[in-house]
Design goal:
Number of helices of chain A: 5
Radius of gyration of chain B: 22 Å
Order of helices and strands of chain A: HEEEHHHH
Strand content of chain B: under 5%
Largest interface: A-B, 15 and 23 residues
Helix content of chain B: over 70%
Helix content of chain A: 40-55%
Structural class of chain A: alpha+beta
Structural class of chain B: mainly alpha
Distance between the termini of chain B: 36 Å
Largest sheet of chain A: 3 strands, antiparallel
Oligomer: heterodimer
CATH architecture of chain A: Alpha-Beta Complex
Number of domains of chain A: 1
CATH topology of chain A: Sufe protein. Chain: A
Chain lengths: 134, 200
């Protein structure tokens, strides 16, 4: 299958590969998978606790080119967004940007799930931290 | 007409393989295009359809695991109309575990030398692969055994619970297969003659 140029670019030069220590304050971690193909994707955000802005994002994906490109793109988009803005990123945005063919749409869904999971983890931890410091 | 109906079977998972094959041959003869050459074009087209349907049905039902996969799709297709599908979930610990294995595998590959993997790495990986393969087989045994029996015996409430169980077990099996294939690939082994379903 022919991948779009953007997919190939993200695949060859993935942005923001790596990870943060899970327990660092402001870090939210999402670990998701696609059982259809056995892909696993970890996506993390690092939120500035004063401003609520995502300062950094990292990912590590074991899967096909589209899954890697989707999560790489997601980390680029996440940086500089507030947590609320980030929750509005949709898989269809990723599909359009990367021109994913129908058979690869589940890769973008996976990336959206990973964003949601990371945000949920951040919110949960943040609330818990705030309560603990009270 | 669904694949079970093609063979006049109820939507149950326990199917006698020899009996299924016998029926397949019998119906294959009945729908063989050669026997309908004198028939009107419309009838010939019908026969061709029936023959294609029969082949698809046999392919889906002859293997117990693909039979379950088909059953899940069939039941889901019906259920989506009512808006109730069970999303497949592998246990979260499994995801974490698969991630760690993949990470370790990547490191082993990165330190790969021209003469192969680091000393000891090959043995470690092979042992890990064998453990995962054992779990993969356990998962298949659970699908074919207790879960299939529960489906056949259960009422509709029980069946929707079993359907969720099927999906979770199939998801777990898919993750295990992927990681086993990836380890096999790193070891340079073909692995049980299994045709890898991975894409790249």
């Amino acid at each position: 299958m022919a991948y779009s140029e953007k997919v190939v670019d993200h695949y060859n030069n993935p942005r923001n590969v790596g990870s943060f220590t899970k327990d660092t304050p402001g870090v939210g971690t999402g670990l998701v998978g696609a059982p259809e193909c056995g892909d696993v994707m970890k996506l993390q955000i690092k939120v500035n606790l004063d401003t609520g802005v995502i300062e950094d994002a990292k990912f590590k994906t074991f899967g096909c080119g589209s899954a890697i490109a989707s999560s790489s793109l997601a980390t680029e988009w996440l940086k500089g967004k507030t947590v609320d803005e980030a929750s509005k990123i949709k898989n269809t945005d990723i599909v359009n940007e990367l021109k994913l063919p129908p058979v690869k749409i589940h890769c973008s869904v996976l990336a959206e799930d990973a964003i949601k999971a990371a945000l949920a983890d951040y919110r949960e931890k943040h609330v818990a931290d705030a309560e603990a410091s009270r | 007409m669904d694949h079970f109906e093609v063979f006049g079977l109820p939507r149950r998972l326990r199917i006698d393989g020899a009996e299924l094959q016998r029926k397949f041959y019998e119906l294959s003869r009945r729908y063989h295009p050669d026997f309908h050459q004198a028939a009107p074009a419309e009838r010939q087209a019908e026969v061709l359809d029936a023959s294609a349907r029969l082949n698809a049905a046999y392919r889906a039902l002859r293997d117990p695991i693909s039979r379950i996969e088909y059953l899940v799709r069939l039941e889901e297709g019906r259920e989506t109309k009512e808006g109730a599908t069970v999303k497949p979930k592998a246990p979260p610990e499994l995801l974490g575990e698969m991630f760690e294995i993949q990470e370790a595998l990547q490191e082993a590959k990165a330190s790969n030398r021209s003469d192969g993997l680091e000393p000891g790495a090959r043995e470690t990986l092979a042992a890990q692969r064998d453990r995962l393969l054992a779990r993969y087989r356990d998962e298949e045994a659970r699908l074919r055994g207790p879960l299939s029996e529960a489906w056949d015996a259960g009422g509709s409430a029980e069946r929707s619970r079993v359907l969720g169980g099927f999906k979770d077990a199939l998801a777990t099996r898919a993750y295990l297969r992927t990681v086993i294939d990836d380890i096999d690939q790193a070891l340079g082994e073909a692995g049980e003659g299994h045709v890898s379903h991975r894409r790249h």
